[in-house]
């Protein structure tokens, strides 16, 4: 099963949604051998038959080298394995790829949301994967893209800077170069704690949706997620959530960017307060809100965003009452216990590590334990 | 100061809003001597100058016998003292009337919301009022009325049945007859626990507002509080809050009416679930939602509705997570600590009484302690 040699020029794309379509077209345009996998076979059939037609900043028609419902076939040979599904599916995919994965391959989470690298790395090890899997977490998707129907993608933009880090960061030197060859816009950051705590979507997606739930569910009303959905009181609430996120990051020695600074940095938006800054963001003017709660703003952002941030907070003694309120609201409205299904310190197997040592662990990985043991034996002498 | 004799035919109306205007016109139409007080003097001046013009189910022009900014002058002589302010003002008014109150007078809270009688009764005693003040709590306002401008009121309806009880219920026989003379639609219920736990507004007002906050604050959008504001998910949430309220009441031996049953009883509305029942309620079709959060749906219903229900729940070991979520949301969005400002078991001085004995205490009042002491001495023998 581990017979075929790894081909540095071969990329597996797991997930054929907005991001998967864009990655496949982009990688083909760069001359890579591209194999794409998707859970639903109708999408695979369409790509097999019609290839991928891309419009926007990348115009062209591209045929993938393989479109398959077999995850094993998709990943064999591939140097880079790009996970481009919603983050709530990461664990399940990690289970599926683990038996076929080798030490030479690099798994990239596009993006990992919060704690994706911990979850995927641990899951791979638990399911007979390599003992030291190379897992990279990207802070966001490289593309602003929309797959209007299978085989068709519009790439509205390519982000100029997507921070990435491997877990442990120790592997960055080995793992990241292959990714940077795909796009030099991927840039190395200190550790996956940075990519994890800079999860802006966790703040920006679920709360405005839940605080507009009746409008979201009204079949006769369309409204804009940011422009109509973020009123002065909602903006104040988001800032309180965001302060909690930044405080949690700070407790682990990580300087997370604030929502306001991020809006300024990414979109150049300015204003007296968060409400004004959101209203002044040109890119948000026509973003229509979802029309129900069964959307990734909830089923992805709660368990792989707010739940792990809250759990990191609890472990470090940083209270997150506003983040918890949104988790609880979603839990009640969707009748799903996100706290027990989501990523937590325990499920990410970080509960044995004191919070003040986590940064070191994330840098060193299992070498960390050797370091600690050495230090302890020094102390004992 | 306690010189003037009590006149059984004299009523003091404290508060000249929707309810105060209606009560004044109604009492005058019944031949009572009516004295009306209001905090803001402009309203008093208007009533002094123009009297009250009532339209709707009561048509006519009525001159009050006194319109005054002096609460002392308003209550002297009056057998019935009708509090018709928002419930969050009850405590302050109790402080003001306490020194002038006598044992012959009856204070009526129209309505008391949750725990009004406890709060007012204790406050009167603490501020040199009679040791055994007669305080009646009404479950709702007698009228469906709107004061369009000072001196003008439209009475759309008079409720057929308004449950009332004194605290302690022991006083019902003595206190309620005077009230029933004003309107036989006031009907005695078991105790103020019944009027307190049947606080439907606490469930129906704040949650739909907070879960539609961006729309509420949008100056360009008008929407209907119930018809647009209660979507399927909001209705599910309200039912969970309502189940908590009913469970808390049950823990004190009180059978509270459910929101669904109440809608059926009061409006004859039917449907498969709460969402449908609300949508089928004719009276709700045109109720426009408030346009900001500085409204009684928040500043009255949170501290005198949800906070005391939650506190009663905590004391009896009944969890109220959904009610607490709404308290916390309001606390965050309005930057006001409603939990410490609102009515609690402690502030109502009920914390010394075991929850299983509360019903007895509410019936007997201070006689309760004598009973308990007797029982204890029996046990000691």
Average pLDDT confidence of chain A is 94
Count, helices of chain A = 19
Q: Looking at the chains present, what oligomeric state does this protein adopt? A: homodimer
Across the major sheet of chain A, the strand order is 5-2-1-6-7-8-11-12
Uncertain segments of chain A are: none
Helix content of chain A: 40-55%
Query: How many distinct beta strands of chain A?
Result: 12
Shape of chain A: globular
Question: Tell me, what is the CATH class of the largest domain in chain A?
Answer: Alpha Beta
Based on the coordinates given, report the CATH architecture of the largest domain in chain A: 3-Layer(aba) Sandwich
The greatest inter-chain interface is formed by: A-B, 30 and 30 residues
Give an overview of the whole structure:
- Two copies of one chain form a homodimer.
- The first copy, chain A, has 381 residues and is of the alpha/beta class.
- Chain A has three domains: 7-197, Rossmann fold; 200-350, N-(1-d-carboxylethyl)-l-norvaline Dehydrogenase, domain 2 (Orthogonal Bundle); 356-381, no CATH class.
- In chain A, 45% of the residues lie in helices and 16% in strands.
- In chain A, strands 5-2-1-6-7-8-11-12 form an eight-stranded mixed sheet, sandwiched between helices.
- In chain A, helix 5 links the parallel strand 7 and strand 8 (134-138).
- The first copy, chain A, starts with 6 loop residues before the first strand and ends with a helix.
- The interface between A and B is medium-sized, with 30 and 30 residues.
């Amino acid at each position: 099963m581990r017979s075929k040699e790894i081909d540095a020029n071969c990329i597996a794309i797991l997930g054929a949604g907005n991001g998967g379509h864009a990655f496949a077209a982009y990688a083909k345009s760069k001359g890579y051998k591209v194999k794409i996998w998707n859970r639903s076979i109708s999408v695979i059939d369409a790509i097999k038959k019609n290839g991928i037609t891309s419009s926007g900043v990348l115009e062209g028609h591209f045929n993938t080298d393989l479109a398959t419902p077999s995850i094993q076939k998709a990943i064999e040979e591939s140097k880079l394995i790009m996970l481009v599904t919603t983050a709530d599916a990461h664990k399940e995919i990690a289970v599926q790829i683990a038996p076929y994965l080798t030490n030479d391959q690099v798994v990239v989470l596009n993006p990992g949301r919060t704690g994706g690298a911990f979850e995927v790395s641990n899951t791979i090890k638990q399911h007979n994967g390599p003992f030291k899997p190379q897992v990279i977490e990207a802070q966001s998707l490289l593309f602003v893209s929309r797959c209007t129907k299978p085989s068709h993608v519009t790439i509205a933009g390519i982000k100029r800077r997507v921070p990435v880090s491997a877990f442990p960061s120790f592997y960055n030197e080995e793992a990241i170069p292959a990714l940077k060859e795909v796009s030099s816009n991927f840039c190395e950051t200190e550790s996956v704690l940075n990519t994890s705590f800079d999860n802006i979507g966790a703040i920006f997606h679920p709360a405005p949706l839940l605080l507009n739930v009746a409008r979201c569910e009204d079949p006769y009303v369309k409204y804009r997620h940011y422009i109509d959905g973020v009123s002065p009181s909602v903006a104040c609430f988001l800032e309180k959530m965001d302060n909690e996120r930044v405080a949690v990051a700070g407790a682990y020695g990580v300087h997370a960017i604030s929502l306001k600074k991020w809006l300024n940095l990414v979109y150049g938006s300015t204003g007296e307060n968060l409400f004004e800054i959101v209203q002044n963001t040109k890119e948000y003017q026509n973003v229509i809100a979802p029309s129900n709660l069964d959307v990734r703003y909830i089923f992805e952002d709660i368990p792989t965003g707010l739940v792990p941030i809250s759990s990191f907070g609890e472990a470090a003694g940083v209270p997150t009452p506003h983040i918890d309120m949104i988790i609880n609201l979603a839990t009640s409205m969707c009748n799903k216990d996100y706290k027990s299904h989501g990523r937590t310190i325990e499920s990410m197997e970080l509960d044995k590590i004191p919070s003040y040592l986590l940064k070191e662990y994330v840098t060193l990985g299992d070498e960390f334990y050797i370091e600690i043991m050495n230090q302890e034996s020094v102390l004992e002498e």
